[in-house]
Write a structure and sequence with these properties.
It comes from Sedimentisphaera salicampi. It holds the Pfam family Pterin_bind. The structure is a single chain. The protein has about 280 residues and is of the alpha/beta class. The chain has one domain: Dihydropteroate synthase-like (TIM Barrel). Helices cover about 45% and strands about 15% of the residues. The chain has an eight-stranded parallel sheet. Helix 3 packs parallel to helix 4 and helix 10 packs across helix 11. The protein is globular. It starts with a helix and ends with a helix.
């Protein structure tokens, strides 16, 4: 199926909601909760019923310090889940992977979008995305999940991240990826301090100048916990909602969250307050 993500986003009055489904034993917020087929399939049903437009399936934890997972193990974790979700629901699925081998299997199973936190560290990734005419998320990360939180530094975090995303987008287009299928993600929490995350969030609007839909993913992340004092990730929904509303104000096109319904409710209410309808 040939996508045109940018075209699908035209005319929407609310950002798309990307619901998170981690089929991992060790993700920072919900590791192990949905690591078997039955629980993952049930959670996918819940994400759809809560209003998700996209389900982002991850089979490799990318929390700080996480070790890489082989493509084979990733495929074992996600393949049947993707097939089952696509057979039951008309919804976009993205696969959160840095591996072109895993991405290939996911697209074969029915996924529509590759969510690549490394923005093409696998030299085959852009070529594969171009060949299959699928969507791809290009995210900024400083280093790798193993090293990214070891004293990250920038001259100016917003301009540095913007330059990186601009360069990665250019490389993807040169490899044949359809420009309208590229999504850009500034990478909240990936090689950033609390100050960096706040500066990026406060400057989200500048990333829309790059001409691609912008994805914002702050759901339950540690910077929210540092500000609110909520040590348990699942208790950071209030802060997540606040970041969702701010991202909406800034023109973000896709917001990645663990709990779609409460974020969607907040966006709808905010829109109604602004419009009086």
């Amino acid at each position: 199926m040939k996508l045109n993500i940018k075209n699908q986003l035209k005319g929407r009055d609310l950002p798309m909601i990307m619901g998170i489904l981690n089929v991992t034993p060790d993700s920072f917020s919900d590791g192990g909760d949905f690591s078997d087929f039955q629980s993952a399939a049930r959670r996918a049903d819940e994400l759809v019923s809560e209003g998700a437009d996209i389900i982002d399936i991850g089979a490799e934890s990318t929390r700080p310090g996480a070790e890489p997972v082989s493509p084979e193990l990733q495929i074992e974790r996600f393949y049947e889940v993707i097939k089952a979700v696509k057979a039951k629901h008309k919804i976009w699925i993205s696969i959160d992977t840095q591996s072109s081998e895993a991405a290939s299997a996911a697209i074969e199973a029915g996924a529509d979008i590759i969510n690549d936190i490394s923005s093409g560290s696998d030299p085959q990734m852009f070529k594969f995305a171009a060949k299959k005419s699928v969507g791809i998320v290009l995210m900024h990360m400083l280093g790798t999940p193993q090293t990214m939180q070891k004293a990250p530094e920038y001259k100016n975090v917003a301009s540095d991240v913007m330059a990186y995303l601009q360069q990665k987008k250019k490389a993807a287009v040169q490899a044949g990826v359809l420009e309208d299928n590229i999504i850009l993600d500034p990478g909240i929490g990936f090689g950033k301090t609390l100050k960096h995350n706040l500066e990026l969030t406060g400057n989200l609007k500048i990333f829309t100048q790059l001409g691609s839909p912008v994805l914002y993913g702050a759901s339950r992340k540690s910077f929210i916990g540092k500000i609110t004092g909520r040590k348990e990730a699942k208790n950071r929904e209030g802060g997540t909602i606040a970041s969702t509303i701010y991202a909406m104000q800034q023109g973000v096109s896709i917001i990645r969250v663990h709990r779609p319904r409460i974020n969607l409710d907040a966006m709808r209410l905010y829109r109604s307050i602004l419009t009086g309808a």
